[in-house]
Each structure stands twice: as structure tokens, then as C-alpha cells.
Amino acid sequence: MTKQITSIQNPLIKSLVLLQEKAKARKQSGTFLIEGKREIELAIKGNYQLETILFLPELITENEINKLVKSKVELIEITKEVYQKLAYRDTTEGILAIAKTKTLSLNDLKLPENALILVMESIEKPGNIGAMLRTCDAANIDAVIIANPKTDLYNPNIVRSSVGCLFTNQIATDTTENVIQFLKDKKIAIFGATLQNSNFYHTQDYTTASALVVGTEATGLTQAWRDNATQNIIIPMQGEIDSMNVSVASAILLFEAKRQRGF
């Protein structure tokens, strides 16, 4: 018999609302919520472990869920009121999953010989991070590293704006110092996107192991990156302003690297 929850006052539902709202709750429980069929499918593909599925029976059947999930997982039937309390989007297909977070350690990254990596330093806006994860998936790069993270990666806005690409990319987070050391140990060239003493990005060679590093729009990269870069790079600007949205800039850099590598 499938378990049913009909009240938003139910303790589990209250704890899930906290998971959606508080990074601390996600950290303490080691879990987060995933919304939508496609996102859940990508999470399974990315080896995320699902604990529970909550579903709205008028929108999705148990049969459909079993086809999607294929493994033993607890199913809980919920009402529309409960679903609306938890869901971020009105349009998802009546399905939510409670999943386990990953450790996101640098040592867990599996990198090929001439890896192509995007490093984001201290990017704060979940929408930007989500957009960049989509670009990284589109360019099919080898890993994404977040240095000095300012936002919990399992923030529902990142899950949502990445359209599930949070699960399709290899991701690690650490301090700027540790990331720089990691790249140097692995002999990966560092290209820092910054205005100071830099060359035009398209004049550089990214066909060997390369990390493209982008910082916040407000303050740019910290000095540590500028000092340790193999070469600082810049996108030539031809208008009145001297910077562009970080997700757009990273897309330009990554696809230049992919072009050089013959896609």
C-alpha cells in the first residue's frame, strides 16, 4: 500500500519545505529536493541516490514512476495542496524526489589526459550558476569546479535554472588555494579571465589540458588567480562597457576551446 500525505502540517512536509528554503537544512540532512521528470531522470543518470518519490496521482501514475526510476524507492502519494507547497514551478509533472547530496570533492573528479575545465570563483547568483552549468553540458566539458563557493549548489534555484545540468556535469567545490594547487599538481594550464595584463582569448591554445577561470562581474577574479594563471585572457569589448554577464563570457571562452579541439 502506497503511503499518503494529505496535510501541509505533516512533519515530513514541513522538513521538506525547510530543505527548499535553507542551505543549513540541506547540509544537516545531506538531502535535497528535485522537481520534474526530466530532472529526476538526469539525476539518476548522474548516479544520484533517490530516497523517496512524492507524486500527485492525477498527474503521474505509479507505473510511470517505476519506469522512470527503475530501482526500489519509497513512494508517497500527495495532494495538490501539498504539491503546491513544495513545488517551485506550476508546470512540473506532479513529481518530486528526495535525493542524497554528493560530497563534490576535487579528489572524486575523473579527468582525461587533456581535460577542459571551467572554474567559477565565488559566483553568487543561482541563475548564473544554472546557466553556466547548462553551457558546460552543451559544450560537454570534463568538469566544473567552484572555487570559494558563495551559494549552496543544491539550492532549488540552481537545480531549476540548470534544467538538470547540475546532474550531468562532474562538479567539485573547494577553496581558491586548493583549486589552484589541484590544477598545478595535474599540470593543467590556468587561463584567468581578467582585465589586467591579459591577451585576447582567441590567441591562446586550449588544445592541451586547460582550466578557464571566471569570477564575479562586480569584482572579477581574486589576485591569487591572476598571480597563478598560465596566461590571463580577455574578450575584446567594442562597446561602452567593459564586462559582460559571466555566463555569457564563459560560454564564449568554452566554445572557443571546443572549436580549437574540433568540437
**How many separate helices?**
11
The biggest beta sheet is recorded as: 7 strands, parallel
- Calculate Rg over CA atoms: 20 Å
Overall number of strands: 12
Low-confidence stretches: none
Question: Which percent bin holds the helix content?
Answer: 25-40%
Return the average pLDDT rounded to an integer: 95
Shape: elongated
Q: Separation of termini?
A: 51 Å
Structural class: alpha/beta
**Which strand order spans the largest sheet, edge to edge or round the barrel?**
8-7-6-11-9-12-10
| H and E order | EHHEHEHEHEEHEHHEHEEEHEH
SS strand fraction: 15-25%
In short:
This protein is an alpha/beta fold. 37% of the residues lie in helices and 21% in strands.
